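Input (structure):
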């Protein structure tokens, strides 16, 4: 078994990715390293940004997990049965995406909800446009997987679509995975892929936070922590895109379905969403957005992410959005409920 330094490199890279809002939001994203018989994976509900300030990694036994994935054994979904308990003193639970990491033969795997990737991965022509952008990167072997619920179904889809040597996988309506023989190479590859997929962000009119604060007064709605979130409501093109539907899973997990719009002459205190899945992000067109006070820690990160993603999509681009069934599946998924409970009870916030 190699020394601890490789894991330390993963910790440092994870913290860096976790602090970059264009790569990671809240508890999203996960990283891993295969060492000996173990797969060291981020724990469910923990934040990559906290990698250097608390233990967020735990080991799972790789061979039995891989066997379970191959057999489509439901225990592979949560992977809790494969945790190496003696090396998990905090009793952490593995990421819901652990099986996705296990199917790669590369030692280091990074999965992030990269804004540049997501802005392309929500398009109906995602596979073609991403392949085109990555063509100039000689060392990239890429495949694209249309949207599947994160977890075991996704792991199995990657396993059947990837060739030996596939080191970049883009996930429809979801994000990016890169893999390499070591942590440094994986980090470097992620940077280059993200750059190749980058699109300019559209400028947005300024928010009217005084008007928003006055509107929100006495209601269950509040201003977002990050003022960049307002662009979803001040830029009509962003708002039209956001209104087509929920674009990726963590938006639903943290903010519910897409975005609600405050009708004219209605105060937020009197507003009730009629959507099938709750809505915790409220757009006041031309003024900015409000966030429901009940959102989980991390909801603010996802509010900003929506402005970042929609700002990189051109008007009238054909998009694939999550269906209501897919939204419900995310809202009711018990692994997600666990993640949500952890987020709700967490105290110290690493947001900055
Ligand atoms: Zn993910």
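Output (sequence):
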């Amino acid at each position: 078994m190699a020394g601890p330094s490789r894991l330390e490199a993963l910790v440092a890279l994870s913290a860096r990715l976790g602090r970059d809002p264009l790569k990671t939001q809240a508890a999203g994203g996960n990283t891993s390293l295969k060492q000996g018989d173990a797969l060291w994976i981020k724990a469910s509900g923990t934040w990559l940004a906290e990698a250097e300030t608390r233990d967020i990694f735990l080991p799972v036994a790789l061979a039995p997990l891989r066997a379970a994935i191959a057999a489509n054994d439901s225990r592979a979904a949560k992977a809790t049965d494969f945790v190496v308990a003696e090396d998990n003193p905090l009793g952490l639970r593995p990421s819901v995406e652990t099986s996705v990491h296990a199917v790669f033969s590369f030692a280091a795997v990074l999965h992030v909800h990269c804004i540049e990737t997501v802005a392309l991965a929500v398009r109906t022509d995602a596979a073609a446009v991403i392949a085109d952008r990555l063509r100039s990167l000689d060392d990239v072997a890429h495949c694209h997987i249309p949207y599947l619920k994160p977890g075991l179904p996704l792991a199995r889809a990657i396993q059947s679509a990837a060739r030996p040597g596939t080191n970049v996988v883009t996930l429809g309506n979801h994000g990016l995975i890169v893999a390499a023989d070591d942590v440094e190479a994986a980090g470097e590859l992620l940077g280059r892929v993200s750059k190749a997929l980058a699109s300019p962000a559209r400028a947005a009119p300024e928010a009217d936070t005084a008007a928003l604060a006055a509107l929100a007064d006495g209601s269950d709605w509040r201003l977002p922590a990050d003022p960049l979130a307002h662009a979803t409501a001040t830029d009509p093109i962003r708002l039209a895109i956001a209104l087509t539907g929920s674009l990726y899973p963590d938006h639903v997990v943290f903010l519910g379905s897409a975005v609600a719009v405050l009708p004219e002459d209605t105060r937020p205190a009197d507003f009730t969403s009629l959507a099938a899945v709750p809505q915790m992000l409220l757009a006041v067109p031309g003024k900015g957005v409000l966030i429901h006070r009940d959102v989980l820690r991390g909801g603010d990160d996802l509010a900003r992410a929506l402005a970042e993603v929609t700002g990189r999509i051109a008007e009238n681009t054909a998009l694939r959005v999550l269906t209501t069934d897919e939204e419900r599946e995310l809202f009711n998924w018990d692994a997600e409920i666990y993640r949500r409970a952890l987020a709700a009870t967490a105290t110290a916030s690493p947001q900055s």
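Notes: The first strand starts at residue 30 and ends at 35. The first helix runs from residue 5 to 19.
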